[in-house]
Amino acid sequence: MSLNTGAEIIRTENVTKRFGELVAVDHVNYVLRENEVAGIVGSNGAGKTTFFNLITGYYPPDEGTIFYRGEEITRVPAEKRVEMGMMRTFQLTSTFDNLTVIDNLILSFFRAHRSASLFPLFLTTRRRYRGEEKIVKTLETFELQNEADRQVKHLSLGEKRRLEIAMAILAEPKVLLLDEPLAGLAESEIKEVLEVLSKRIGKQTLLIVEHKISKVEDFLERLTVMHDGRVIADGKCEECLRAPEVRRSYWQIETPADGTDG
What we know:
Blueprint: E1 8-19, E2 22-33, E3 37-41, H1 48-56, E4 63-68, E5 71-72, H2 78-84, E6 86-89, H3 101-113, H4 119-123, H5 133-141, H6 157-170, E7 175-179, H7 187-198, E8 205-210, E9 222-227, E10 230-235, H8 237-242, H9 244-249
Parallel strand pairs: 3-8, 3-9, 6-7, 7-8
Antiparallel strand pairs: 1-2, 1-4, 4-5, 9-10
């Protein structure tokens, strides 16, 4: 069930992934709509990250079909999906640590808007792009303007996470897929990351995979809960978290067979 009435942007039909005898994703049907802010949660081993890898093209499904904006992309490679408008961030920050913050943004901008190869950028100079309006605006939006000339290796983990998301957004993807963006962050850093992401609400489709729902439940418009490779709940956060199967599987709270609280 999707709460958003926008056009479908991602759809999966009976998507399944096996690793030997283990069924990591088990016939999952899922719809993500344009400008939706959605999350997928589950305990370790629930299948959420494997499903994420199927959507983004890092794994091929053993069964099922994946669509992006109405076009089948089941066997389309990950890099092609990026070109189509699907941009993913990873649990570990993927930045150029020996370059400055602004140079990282320039490289991201150049790759997305000027050339698929970064080689021409090194033949000229990165300095000419420092005043590019989109780059300046991105520094401000993600509150990184005071860090622009710092080498990334000297940033805190929270600052690096904001930079990684900024680099992804600078490429102007249709869908931004975030793989545990809050992992390892302090409470203050979590607040900072969610604040900058909140500025994308209504402007961009966001799909977040997280382990701890408490960090994102107030941020999400819609929640999907996975367990043992299956979707066991989908809808508003509060309703999903009250569902008997979610209480048993995710919260590990014993519930009566009829689903009522004892």
